[in-house]
Amino acid sequence: MTGLISTNAFWTIWLFVHLILAVGLLGALTHQAMAVALPARQAAGGIVTRFRAVPAAGYATAVCVLWVLTFLVGSFIYTKYRIYIRIPIEAAHDYKTGGFFDFKEHVTTLGLMLLPAYWYFWKNAQNPDYDNARKGVTLVLAVMCWFVFIVGHVLNNTRGFAS
Amino acid sequence: MSMTTTGTSSTARSTSSLAASSKFKTFATTFSISGPVIYCVVQYFNWPLVTFHPATNRLVWGYEAARSGEGPNMLWYGWTLTAILIAAAVGIIAMMLPERITRKIPLALVWVFPILAIPYVIYSLMPWWTLAAKQ
User: Counting one residue from A and one from B, how many pairs have CB atoms under 8 Å apart?
Assistant: First the structure.
C-alpha cells in the first residue's frame, strides 16, 4: 500500500470506517424506531423515555446518508471479503456464517430501496396520512439494520480485523 | 408539567421543495414498493448489469461466469444496479400517470413487500443451508 501503511492496515481502516458508520446508523434508526413505536408524551423522565423522546424527523436525512455511506464502504470492502474471508470460511465449512453474510447483503439492498419513501414520509411528518407507512418503514429499516449489524459483528468475530 | 408530543415531531415541516412535490412522492413510493420485488426477480433470473471478478479486478457488462484460474465472480453489485435502474424507470413511468391513479397506491406496500421478500431471499440461499445441514 504505497509504503505508508500495510495492505492489512489499509483494509482494517476501511472495515473500521464501515463499523463507525454502522454504529451511527444503528443509533439513529433505533432512536427513531423507538420514537414511532412508543412515542413519549413528555421530554423529561428516565433514560428510556428520553431515548424515545428525540425529535425523530430530524434523523431522516442522516439515516439515508449513513445507510448509503455504510452501503458504499461495505461494497468496497466486499471485494476483499469475497477472496480473503469467504473462501477460508467455505474451507472451514462455516456454511451458516457464509449464508448469513449473503443474507445480509440482500437485506442491505432491500433497505436501500426503501430510503426514498422513508425520506419522503419523514419530511412530511406533519401529514397524518403517512403515519402508518412512516411507522412501518422505519421499524422495518431498524430491524434490518440490527440484523445486518449483528451478522457483520459475528462475521468479524469469525474472520475479520487483521485476518 | 406541560404535555408536549415529542418523538414523531408532529410540528415538523417539509424543509425542501422535493418533500412537498407530489411527483416526487409518486416516484419515491413507487421506487420503494417495486424495488424489493424487482430485486428478487433480478436475482431469480440472474440479470446482473455487471459482473465483477475480484481476484483480477475485472468488471464486465452483464453476466459472466467465474473463469478457471481467475477466482470467483461477484454478481451482487450487478443485481443491485439492475434493480435500482428498473425501479427508477418504474418510478419515472409512475410520475407520468394522472394523480387520481397514483393516489390509490397503498402506501403500506412500502414496508409489506420487503417483509414478503425475506422468505424468498432465505430460499435463494438454499445452497448454503443445504451444505450446513450436511455438517
Answer: 181
